[in-house]
Amino acid sequence: MSKTILIYRDELLPYSETFIPAQVEQYSRYTGFYAGTSRHRKANYPLPKERTLVLSDIAKLSEKRKIFFLATGYGYPQWFEQLQQLSPSLIHAHFGLSGVWALPIAKRLQVPLVVTFHGYDITLNAWSANRSDIYGPKPLPQVYLWRRKRLFKEASCCIAVSEFIRSQLIAKGCPPEKIEVCYIGVDVERFRPDLTLARQPVVLFVGRLVEKKGCQYLIQAMAAVQSAMPELELVVIGDGKLRADLEAQAKASLQHYRFLGVQSSDAVREWMNRALMLCVPSVTDATGNSEGLPITVLEAQAMHLPVVGSIHAGIPEAIVEGETGLLAEERNGQQLAEKILTFAGDEGLREKCAIAARQQVEQKFNLKQNTTQLEALYDRLLS
């Protein structure tokens, strides 16, 4: 009989975090149950109902009561009884923020706590931690920063999704011996290209339309690219608070472009199967917010799609210049344009990088293999 792991994420679950259930549903010797205080405010990713326990489904949870519960862990014995009945072996929280809120839960259930850090949760500058769009209303940002030190001390393990995130954890005070680098990876069977399809003259972008994704620099680059190769079209998949500004920028400077909004995973895979290349121009934003290692890079590489990325966070851990892709400096639209034109004009280089990148994903970023390593980590912690 498999052991139970409580997968804790305070809000269950935005579509931008589908990498969490992708990992959990690969477990072979453990069973993951999803727990959180509330459901995500917008469209929720459909988690298995029989393995999802949301506090707000069984109790009235005003904003004040939720803040009090997150800050103290007190109250709602009925929910804790439901969690206890699962006999969880440990809690695995995703993002440092949820890890801090899971501390009192782990204590009440008397189980170890594992926390995966993905990016903003360890890279944001302390002075910018009052961002309610990320941390929630006051005093939650201050509680998070204060308790993060306690989290480093009391968590059994802190998982970094890249070597870059490991370095950030150490810089913020996490003991190095408590850190494990565990790449999440992608399902190499699901993300398998159809090599019979012809590539189209499309430069693809997939991601939230927020500052750290760097889409404005891609639009800037595409203006120069289309001056040299007007047949190349920019296709943007995703949504976010910068969408209107980015569409206005594209309208003023580009000849061919499309903004498709949020698309299903199947639709994204279809675009990855027919685009000429993916561009991932991520940057460190004004608050220090950085990527960990964007799953989109790995999905594209698995799909035999060449990737132009920025020299940012964990991206160079997946893209080796001239071998598995091409890299440009952050915020350098001119250099980004040069890299896009290099790929566009050299089919041999695209093919070479695509083959090497697919092989690298199979060996290093394989979701099934990496989840097996995660389960081995659980074994060690529980022994």
Automatic annotation (TrEMBL):
Residues 76-190 form the Glycosyltransferase subfamily 4-like N-terminal domain. GO terms for molecular function: glycosyltransferase activity. It comes from the Bacteria. It holds the Pfam family Glycos_transf_1. Residues 191-359 form the Glycosyl transferase family domain. This is Glycosyltransferase. It comes from Lusitaniella coriacea LEGE 07157.
